[in-house]
Structure formats: C-alpha cells, structure tokens
Amino acid sequence: MAKVTVSNWDPAEFIETKEDVIANLSVALEDGDVEYLLKIMGHIARSAGMSQIARELGVSREGLYKSLAPDGNPSFETVVKLLDLLGFCLKIEQKVSA
Predict the structure, then answer these.
(1) How far apart are CA 89 and CA 83, in angstroms?
(2) Which of 10, 57, 76, 97 is the most buried (most CB within 10 A)?
(3) What is the dihedral of CA 51, 9, 74, 19, to 10 degrees?
(4) pLDDT tens-digit series, residues 11-40
(5) Considering the entire predicted model, what is its pTM?
C-alpha cells in the first residue's frame, strides 16, 4: 500500500488575485452566514499579510485575528477599513427575487 502524506491546507495560500478576493467575498455574502464571512475575511487578511493589515488598521495582530474569528464581532468601521486597505468597497444592489 502506498504511503499517504497529509498536510494542513490553508485557504489563505490560494487567495492570490483580486478576482480570488471578489469570488470569496461574493460567495460569503450571498450565503448570509456572518461567521463564514468573518472566516473568509480572515483568510483574505492573512493572504495579504495580517501583521501589515493590522498595523494599517491601528489594531494589534492578535486583536484583528480575534475580530475576524468565526465568533468575532468586528465593528462595521473595521470591516469597511479592511476592505478599503485591500482595495475594495461595499456596494448595494437590489436583490433579484425568484
């Protein structure tokens, strides 16, 4: 039997482009699950460099990790600033009902 090697998979390693960020955030927002959205935002922040992002937001790295944890509770200001630092903004559009 062949030996199987298992390693930890880190989604942040696969968020490489602006399109990756948009796709991940879009899916998370469509899902409507706030915990999932925070998890995705955490992956995105880690892919961009959590320490640098935290410095630019004026918070500690640990504080940003806690805010973006699935049970975190970041302020709306933190979310908007984080998106801005990453080069994004929020837009509102009317939901299409089926």
Answers:
(1) 6
(2) 57
(3) 80
(4) 899 999 999 999 999 998 888 888 888 999
(5) 0.81
